[in-house]
Specification:
By secondary structure, the chain is an alpha+beta fold.
Length: about 375
């Protein structure tokens, strides 16, 4: 099971990997929306395959992808969605606020505000990938750090070496070529062929390499990196260690919600989510919080002591809080408590007695 949305009025809408069970959930709110959802799923499953393939291959030229889509009605419809916003697409397709909010919150996890043009096709992706045996959400057993450990084992099996707990201070450049890295302790590691950075392009270009090293040929690339704006969606993340997992308001009426990996709450309508982005653009934390909560221990009990649980929440917020990111150090406790109070309205068992410990991870 993928997840669902808990509403303040006590109802919930669940999204299963099984498309039939999902449509039965949607039917409780709108038979019309259930038919439309199934239609979107059936029409765009093939197109979603093409999109997923693109994630694992070098980027194509900007003109190639539209040309690939022009041959089918589904492709042309997807091009229309790409040019639109997620909000416009859900309004065109559906009438149920709960379904709209679920799709908008999960779409925003891709990094775009829901009113941004050019990202509307993510709605079709959400309606199809959730029910795909290979593209549905998943996690590593014993937490996602195990993915990094697995990659390290592959490297070491091929006689490579992994240096752990070492901060890279800069990438070394000679004659316009990356030749290695320098660690924070002054250690230099040279590269025979290339240097690959996964630190994100703003940090890599602005800090690890430095603008002056890119030369005239790289000027356009550096300017493009400077135009990158991550500030409309960053995350504030409360982490909870619990005696028992969150018990959502509709757990008796819709008991499968207790098995959900993800539950969205606090955004019962698209308007409630929109107010969050309005606050974010004003450089304040959302006054009406709510978002994307994950209960890993529900599907993987090995990550906790027996009988215990963990949960966390991704809350959209701003980076430069009231104009300065350093303000988070003084305000994150108050903001985290405010978010937790809202969470408790939808999962009433998140009491102080249930919470063993907590940690508030601010954007800073």
């Amino acid at each position: 099971m993928q997840g669902g949305i808990q509403l303040a009025d006590g109802r919930s809408l669940l999204i299963y990997q099984d498309i039939d069970r999902t449509c039965k959930q949607i039917e409780k709110f709108s038979p019309k929306d259930a038919r439309t959802y199934r239609d979107v799923y059936e029409r765009f499953t093939h197109m979603n395959e093409l999109l997923m393939v693109s994630f694992f291959n070098p980027p194509t030229k900007p003109s190639v992808t539209p040309a690939m889509m022009e041959g089918t009605s589904e492709g042309m419809e997807l091009l229309r969605m790409i040019a639109s916003t997620p909000e416009r697409i859900v309004d065109d397709l559906f009438e149920t606020d709960a379904l709209k909010s679920w799709l908008l919150v999960t779409t925003a996890q891709l990094g775009n505000p829901t009113d941004r043009y050019g990202s509307g096709a993510a709605i079709a992706h959400d309606c199809t990938s959730a029910h795909h045996p290979r593209h549905a959400w998943g996690v590593c057993v014993c937490l996602s750090r195990m993915a990094a450990e697995a990659m390290a084992k592959v490297i070491e099996a091929y006689r490579g070496k992994c240096v752990r707990d070492a901060h890279v201070e800069k990438i070394l450049v000679e004659d316009g070529r990356a030749t290695g890295v320098e660690l924070a302790d002054g250690t230099k590691i040279t590269a025979r062929k290339l240097v690959i950075s996964n630190a994100g392009h703003p940090y890599t270009v602005n800090h690890l390499v430095g603008e002056e090293e890119w030369g005239k040929e790289g000027k356009g690339f550096v300017e493009g990196v400077k135009r990158f704006r991550p500030d409309e969606i960053v995350l504030f993340t409360p982490h909870l260690a619990l005696n028992e997992a969150p018990k959502w308001k509709d757990w008796e009426g819709n008991p499968d919600i207790l098995k959900a990996f993800v539950v969205v709450f606090g955004t019962d309508t698209p308007e409630m989510l929109r107010t969050q982005f309005e606050d974010i653009r004003a450089l304040i934390p959302p006054r009406n919080p709510g978002g994307f909560s994950c209960m890993h221990s529900v599907i993987d009990p090995t990550i906790c002591p027996q009988g215990k649980h963990v949960a966390f929440l991704w809350q959209f917020t701003c980076y430069d809080l009231r104009g300065d990111a350093r303000n988070w150090d003084n305000e994150k406790q108050k903001v985290g408590d405010h978010i937790l109070a809202k969470w408790r309205e939808y999962a009433p068992n998140l009491t102080e007695e249930n919470i063993i410990d907590r940690y508030y991870d601010s954007p800073l």
